[in-house]
Structure formats: C-alpha cells, structure tokens
Amino acid sequence: MKVALRSGTAAALVLAALIAGLVASIHGARNARTEIATQAALPRVDGRVDVFHNTEQTRFVQFVVDRVPAHDRVRIVMAPPTQVADQRTICGRMPLVARYWVLVYGIAPRASVCDSSARWVVYFGVAPPPGGTVYRFTSNYAVVRL
Amino acid sequence: MTIIAVVLMALAGHCVLRLLVRRVPLRAYGVLATVGLSVLLGAALIGLVTTYAAVLGLPTRVWSVVGPVVLVLAVFGLLPSRVFAALRLPPEDSQPAAHHMWLADGFVGGAIVALGAVLLTGSSKLVVFSNDEWAIWAIRGRTLSLAGHLDPVVFQGAAAQYQHLDYPLLVPSLIAWGDGIAGHPDDSAAHVLLIVLTLGMLAVVGWAANRLAGPYAGVCSVLLIAGTPRLLAPYGLRVFADVPLAAFAVALLLVLAMWIVHGDGRMLAVAAALAVGTAAVKDEGVVFALAGLLAALVVPAQVRHARRQVLFAAATMIASMLPWLIWTRAHGIESDLINSQTLTPHHLRQVAGYSWLVVRLIVRYWPGYGWWGIAGGVLAVVLAVTVPRLRRLTAYLCLAWLIAAVGMWAQYVISAGRYQNVVPIPVELRGHFASSATRVLLVPSIIASLAMPLLAGGLVPKLRRSTQRVSQHRQSRTPVEEHPATAATE
C-alpha cells in the first residue's frame, strides 16, 4: 500500500513535470520565434542593422571602417548623454552609454584608446576642431588623422 | 559555412570523447550521448586551444593554430579502432553505462529536433544586438578573429574601460571560430554555435536522465529545461555566456550522476573534460563545476579510489584554468565581483548585513517554475529518500544544488557595495539582481527543476519496465540483481 502510494505520487509528479515542461517549452519556443522575427525585421542601412536607430550614425560606422586601417587605434569623442548626470568624457570614466559600445564594436578591431597611442580621432556627434587631416562625413561626424 | 564550423567542432569533440571513453562512443553510448558530448567537448577544445594560443602570443586567427588542431582531431577521431589501440591508453575496467533505450531516446531526440528547428530556422537573420553582446562577448570574439591576438587595449583594458576583462575566452573563441570558417565576421555563425551548445546539453541531459530514472525522465527533463523562463529566448538566442555556461554545467552534473550511480569510470573522465569547459565559459562556471565535483566527492561512486579520482578531475579543471589565470593576474586583471577590494575583512563585515536581502532577492528573481516547481522538487526529494537505491542520487543532487545556490548567494553578497560611493548598497544590489539574476541563477534553477523527473522518475517501476531494454551484457536475470539505478522494484 505504502509502495503503491509512493509510486502513484511519483507518477503524478512525473506527469505534472511533463505537462509543465511541455507548456513552458512551447511558450519558450514561441518567444524564440518572436525574437527571431523581431531581429529579422530590424531596419537595415546598406545591409547593416541600424543599431543606432539613426541612419546617419549607422552609415558613419562604415565610413570609419573604410578610412581607418584595421590595426590603428582610435580615440572616440562623443557628446555625453544629456539625461545622465555624470557629464565626464568617455576617457575620463564615461557613464554607461550603449552607443559608445555599439560604435566600438562596429569599428572592431580598431581599438578605442584614451591615450597618445591613438592615430585617429573619431568625432561622433561632435564637430571636430581645426587641425589634422579631417575626413568629414557630416558636420558632426568626422574622422581626423593625427 | 556555419554547418562546416559546427560539424568540425563536433568531430573534434568526438575525437576527444573517443579518447576519454576508450571506445567508439556511438557504439558504447548511443547517438544522444555521442552527439551531445561531442558538441560540448568540441567547444571546450576550441576555447582552450584559442586561449592557450593567445596567452602564448600565438595568432588567434582560426587557420593559424586552432583550425589545424581541430582538423587533425576531427579526422583522427574517425580512424579505425586499431589506430586507437596502438595508442595503448590505460585500460578502463568498469563496464560502460550502455543501456539501449531506443524508444525513450527517440522521444528525447524528437523533442531536441523540434526545439532545434525552432531555434535554428531563420537564425541567419540573428545579429549582435544588445549591450552585453557588444560590450563583453562579441567585441572580444571579433578582436580574436580580426586582430588575431590578445590586443592589450581590449583584453587588458590598457587604455580604455572595456568590461569584465577577467572573463575566460570560450565564448569569444567560438565567435572567432565561426568568423574564421566563414572568412568574415559572421553573426549568424556565432549564434548558431551557441544554440548548438544548448541542444547538445539537452541531448546529454535526455540521455543521462533516461538511464538514471527511466524512460519518461529524459523527455521530461529536456522539456523542463527548455521551458525555463528566458532560456530559449532571449538568452539562448543572444551571444551571451550564460546559456552556454548552463549547457556545460548541467551536462557535467548529469554525467557525474551517471558515474555515481553506474560506476562507469569513463563518465568521470568525460565529467573532468566538461568541468574544464564549464570553467572556461565564465567566472561562475568554477563555482558550478566545483559544486558538482564537491558533491561527487561527498557522495562518490562505489568504486575503488573514487574520491581520489574526483580530486584528480578537480585538479584537471584547475590546471586547465591556470594559463588564463596567470595571464590575467600578470596584467593586473581581477574579477569585477570577487577581488582584492571585495575580499577584505572590512568590506565583508560591511556587506554581511545584506545577506538576508540577497536571499530575498534570489527568491524574487529565481528563474524557475515558481513555488509549484519548488514544492514538486521537495516532494520528489522526500519520496526519494525513503528508497535506499535513490538516496545517493538524491544526496548528490541536493548537495550540488545547495553548493551552487550558496555560491551564487556568496557572490552577490561579497560583490555588494562596489559602487557605494555612487548609490546606496540596497539600491545597487537590486540593480545588480535586476540586470543579472535571471541569467546567473539559471544553473541552480535547472538543477532544482530536474529533481522531479530524476527522483520521481526513478519511482515509477511499471512504466519503466515496459519500455526499457537493457543491453545483453548488462541485463540481469531478476530485477533485484539489476543495477541499483535501473532496478524496477525494490
């Protein structure tokens, strides 16, 4: 009797786990399809996903890649986000800004540095000052060779 | 090209598996174990070879070191048995845990094929699209494949604030592997390689669960894991390390359980290799691997020198980590969470007061099946401890879960207060949990979920006896004489 009760309870548990797993994995599979569909539908600019949600910025990444040799170091100058209290520059210990990492990733393997090893300066949303060899994409997006 | 990357990885892993089990894996352990373990061991191999090449200053582009190694092993693993016999590997006396369970394995295989179809159809459209992908994993993978070395700016933070510099290189290595085979940065290959690890884990879990707890445990375990909230999506579809970490850690725990229950020494060798992979994915991997190995040390297989063998497996894992640890320490790189600042007595005294808050936050963010799942798991444990033949497996699972959960609790407590100059500790802790807990707690959550099929499944004798077929050389004449884990009656 005791063994039968135990076996019955165990069978019920296995059945419950099977149903819970089936329902949850179908839910997970649906989420996966939604995620894949969402990513497939992302807007693209010249074949690249418009990760900045800004055509100009996404095209500028390719502009940098086309001009800066793969193994040169770059320094990134980017306007601090207005909604963040910490207004220090990126190299002075930047606030967590997703678009900085998107840019760094987009131009890899051109590593982002803050010191004098940079051979190029990438002005991202900031007008470059006079001097150096300026490759201008737009007024606020440019690459300067030092 | 992505298919070639996956196949080469799996074939190299197959060679490693064949060397570890000293038999043709397909014949000894069947399709599920062979495919699942080959994929995981192949990924571990690529991660390790890339890491060692990198720290030795060798090129990390695929066709410099890693590719030739993988190619040679992939071909070598397919050579006839007499070639392996010529290697004169040390003999393994124990019998392989080689029960043939065609129907039960077929259900598991069907579930995995269905899940694979869901995850892989349209995977060519997957892109690197979120912060941790850009800032931590993909940037390092792309630097390995495009720069071809451990660029000090990216990997040492020499001149910029790159994040989590201490994280090991298995996931970036796989990204570089996909890029190298494709010949260009390939987001789709990176995603597919990581998805395949998830599927590999499900195959290993289904195979092991069938043999640990009967034919319904396999498919039940696979579905429970696949249904873990956020596991398939979004985490499983992103270039994150958390699901690959769960893949290695959960496979390790189940393979160790196979060794404990069946006493098959080959499984401990495979577990050691999986522990190496687990530790090579992410810092937390060391905790999870040690959770499994410590639990196996307390509840070892009933074979000669069992504890010594577990210690050897743990030593293998630690030795495999040394090159990366030495390289990071030599460049002044520490963990962001557990480091010389957070391990001081002053800091520990300061954060000790938040221990209970961390417990409450773990409960709140637990990525499992809620209270019903926990109640079911507890009931399965209570039922299992009343049966002598299930006590070892129960003790092992409970211990592994406890060590993993306590390890994560300790990590959250110790790492609290890192930004107390900017935000109060409770606020920081809540933010840390909100951003990480549903990923970091995946492994202990999955272990808890598996309690039901693994323990309760072992108590459903009639259902099991009707479908299980045991291979001839293992089959006993009476149920009482069967192996303790598969005996149909008590």
Give an overview of the whole structure.
Chain A is of the alpha+beta class and 146 residues long. Helices cover 42% and strands 17% of the residues of chain A. A four-stranded mixed sheet of chain A has the order 3-4-6-5. With 490 residues, chain B is mainly α. Helix content of chain B is 68%, strand content 0%. Chain B contains 21 helices and no strands. Chain B has helices at residues 2-21, 25-55, 66-76, 81-86, 102-120, 131-147, 152-155, 170-182, 187-213, 215-226, 242-262, 265-279, 283-298, 306-330, 345-352, 355-365, 370-385, 391-414, 425-440, 442-456, 461-467. In chain B, helix 8 (170-182) packs across helix 9 (187-213) and helix 11 (242-262) runs parallel beside helix 13. The longest helix of chain B is centred in the first third of the chain and has 31 residues, at 25-55. The N and C termini of chain B lie far apart (52 Å). In chain B, 58% of the residues are buried. Chains A and B meet through helix 1 and helix 3 of A and helix 5, helix 6, helix 10, helix 17 and helix 20 of B.
Which terms would index this structure?
heterodimer; A: 146 residues; alpha+beta; four-stranded mixed sheet; two-stranded antiparallel sheet; 3 helices; 6 strands; 42% helix; 17% strand; elongated; B: 490 residues; mainly alpha; 21 helices; 68% helix
Secondary structure blueprint with pairings:
The complex is a heterodimer of chains A (146) and B (490).
Chain A (H helix, E strand, L loop, with lengths): L1 H39 L3 E2 L2 E2 L5 H13 L6 E5 L19 H9 L13 E5 L8 E6 L2 E5 L1
Parallel strand pairs in A: 3-4
Antiparallel strand pairs in A: 1-2, 4-6, 5-6
Chain B lengths: L1 H20 L3 H31 L10 H11 L4 H6 L15 H19 L10 H17 L4 H4 L14 H13 L4 H27 L1 H12 L15 H21 L2 H15 L3 H16 L7 H25 L14 H8 L2 H11 L4 H16 L5 H24 L10 H16 L1 H15 L4 H7 L23
Helix pairs in contact in B: 1-2, 1-3, 1-8, 1-9, 2-8, 2-9, 2-12, 2-14, 5-9, 5-10, 6-8, 8-9, 9-10, 9-11, 10-20, 11-12, 11-13, 11-18, 11-20, 12-13, 12-14, 13-14, 13-18, 16-18, 16-19, 17-20, 18-20
